[in-house]
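hey all, quick one before standup. I had two proteins in the batch that finished overnight and I want to keep them in one place so we stop losing track of which output belongs to which input. First protein below, input sequence then structure tokens straight from the run.
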Amino acid sequence: MITIFSICSTMLHDLLQGIDPGGFLIIQDSCCSSGRRLLWSIIKAALNRTEAVHVLSFEVSEDELKNGLKGSPIERLHFHNAYDDPLGWTGHAAFTVDQFCVERVTQLVEQSSQVKPAVLIIDSLSWILRHVSPSAVCRTLQQLNNGGSVGNIIGLLHSDMHPRGMVGSLCHSATSLINVVTGPRGDHAKITKRLKSGKVLQDEEVFSIKDDLTVVGQSKFSLAEPQEQRADPTANLTFNLRLSDSQREAKENLALPFVFSKEKKAALLHTGSGRIVYEPDANDDYDQEDPDDDLDV
């Protein structure tokens, strides 16, 4: 389980406070709204919960990460350096993008002695998707989540770097998704959580992150944004669409055609012998001669 110390009491807090074992969380961001500090908040919370955290880092150096986690117990933080040489050009890379497979990642995680499954952080999935096919990435993530040395997977995804279909395929394999966007009142988190029952929960919240990486939920998005005043389309019309009291009363008392009155309903529902009653109309075209007399044998 991953617990994050936060004073927000909404779905964002609940999601970060309790990611079920085997869960796969994607933090989706863009060039306009970074989700890295939210990712660091999750790492710090997991370390505070005495969990082993393994970071596959393609975009951040070890010094930058540890500086961002200043004050956290980093004894259980295991940094796997894919930042210096992610493509293996020097031949001495600690981890390359081509090594992203179940066997290699499991080997890295099992190198550290730990009692319970570790938390795997991928920073970022975008680096991998640029060099590995999406189907292979999804298959590897699914196999890592089948139990074993990896308990949870949290990945950062830059959605504006990939086609929409590719992003959708990867996000569909996740059990939870946090889409970080910028709004009028700060960062918004669009949250999607898939339960084991198959039910999908969605929410949107406003949040901020303190200097100590504490996530603070400011308000519900539905209550935070001021609603725009909509113009009245009937304000400047040359005729009146509204009814006066007398007009409304006359409308309510109007007997509509083809609507049964209480008397007619009672007559139709009356039990007993039935009969057909025909009331001639002035416009009826009535012919005295039998139109079918030629059919008589």
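OK second protein, same deal, sequence then tokens:
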Amino acid sequence: MVRGRISRLSVRDVRFPTSLGGHGSDAMHTDPDYSAAYVVIETDAEDGIKGCGITFTLGKGTEVVVCAVNALAHHVLNKDLKDIVGDFRGFYRQLTSDGQLRWIGPEKGVVHLATAAVLNAVWDLWAKQEGKPVWKLLVDMDPRTLVSCIDFRYITDVLTEEDALEILQKGQVGKKEREKQMLAQGYPAYTTSCAWLGYSDDTLKQLCAQALKDGWTRFKVKVGADLQDDMRRCQIIRDMIGPEKTLSLFLQMMDANQRWDVPEAVEWMSKLAKFKPLWIEEPTSPDDILGHATISKALVPLGIGIATGEQCHNRVIFKQLLQAKALQFLQIDSCRLGSVNENLSVLLMAKKFEIPVCPHAGGVGLCELVQHLIIFDYISVSASLENRVCEYVDHLHEHFKYPVMIQRASYMPPKDPGYSTEMKEESVKKHQYPDGEVWKKLLPAQEN
């Protein structure tokens, strides 16, 4: 039962000093401090349930997202939750179409990250009030209600409301069986935790050996800064996996994090093709749709797919990537797009084009959020696990009240109500920037 008027919205700048250990480092982001703008919304309902939402950042700039959240707050405060979810498309459009704020977007950049944080909190609140995890809330939702959550503006040349409804209605067939399968087996995952670019060879070997011992068979390697370094590191992982005859049992992905120009990407990957990667991720600028298409066409004969999406601004960019046949693996992000609402539209477009969705995760809470989306996708939209896998990074889960559960290298569907976004208050206070205990110690040392 949806209830309550939103009476308060707070947002805090939470940062973890991950750069100290090289965690999260890649060819373009060499010193990330995994961070989040953490939003909490409260209502006047007697149950005291709060909605928690995040958007992911890398340290500097989180304060800018916090400002954007505060600028959006007036669209949320004093609204009845029932009215919001009863016209979710209208509320989404209200947030993304503010006549002044959209000038610093529209639907991209800082203002869209802030929109995601606010909407993620709304979805968390709604699911908690319904007593369901978000994936289950979506799975149990009538197809017409799901469609009513989506803003189809700018994508009707590819996906209409009628198209979306037809896909969701077809997804009703076999849905109960697929839900049972997810609850029993989970959703297949791959790990990025072993091969950050800032890790030494010894650390890479140690983490890879432990991952193999833990049952991981799918690994992603960061590449793009130095070709010889990439060759050496990829060879280390290949040697640890085993001889070539066993490679078919394992998957290896590569991620350049937007490092290359288009010709450079083709040349570089031609050299790395011998390691037989399933895909190269973000080979060039995330905005270069035609560049991705060119790289895709060149690498298909080498058996290498293109994966991208973690820094795609919105559903329009995804639409064009699909139209241009610029990717073979689509990577949604739970905090860069406009929360569940916009991700629903991308999942449906991917289904229409029959492109597998392999979400981006990691960071602060991205694994916690995106598991809901990809489990829903399998149960209600794609109905397939072929060429599908979800990223997992083993960092910072201990700071969440309902952390992800991985078994047999698979995401097990969360059972607690909500969007798994609620952080432990102790962790938030300790890592709040710049006044938390962690930063009070670190900042003076960094200044010296």
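Flagging for whoever picks this up: The longest strand covers residues 6-15. The chain has 17 helices and twelve strands.
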